[in-house]
Amino acid sequence: MAHRLHEPRQQQRRGFAPMSLSLNKAFGILPASIRLQDRRAAVLASTIATADTPNTNSRDFEFRGTLAAIAGVGKGLELVKTQSNHLQLPGFDPNANPETLYRIPAQPALDGNTVDPQLERAAFAENAMRYQSTLEFLNRRVSGLRAALRKE
């Protein structure tokens, strides 16, 4: 019985301390970034699809601000929900849809359309590039975790 009490100390001295694995810490903000980029692609695609429709407004959302809110960057005090009927703060739920904003047009059309197809396509291409690079970062993290787990 006494021998078992001393085993953890011997393991810690040899560098075999138990290690916890948290996937949230391992992946960081990447999964939330993927979800937001997917939602932004849908908003931009919808705007591009209706570019020739009269009275269509160009829509988008602030990606960086929304991602920072999800990550908790810049928030002052941590609010704790002590009861289930407390309200959720807006912008901090990674599964919620971000607030869609309307873009101010550089040159509005006579029919009330504010969509600039070239600007929307450029925003869509930039979002697609960022989406692909985020997927690559996430893939490398998963590969690193797999390699670490195989080498026990």
Write out the strand line-up for the largest beta sheet, numbering strands in chain order. 1-2
Biggest sheet features: 2 strands, antiparallel
Order of helices and strands: HHHEHEH
- Helicity range: 40-55%
Task: Please specify the SSE layout and strand pairing.
Layout: H1 2-13, H2 23-27, H3 30-49, E1 59-60, H4 63-71, E2 101-102, H5 117-150
Antiparallel strand pairs: 1-2
Main attributes of the structure:
152 residues; mainly alpha; disordered N terminus
Task: Write a brief structural summary.
This protein has 152 residues and is an all-alpha fold. It has helices at 2-13, 23-27, 30-49, 63-71, 117-150, and strands at residues 59-60, 101-102.
Describe this structure as you would to a colleague.
- The chain has about 150 residues and is mainly alpha-helical.
- The chain is about 55% helix and about 5% strand.
- It has helices at about 1-15, 25, 30-50, 65-70, 115-150; strands spanning about 60, 100.
- Strands 1-2 form a two-stranded antiparallel sheet.
- The longest helix is centred in the last third of the chain and has 34 residues, at about 115-150.
- About 10% of the residues are buried.
- Mean pLDDT is about 80; it is low at about 1-15.
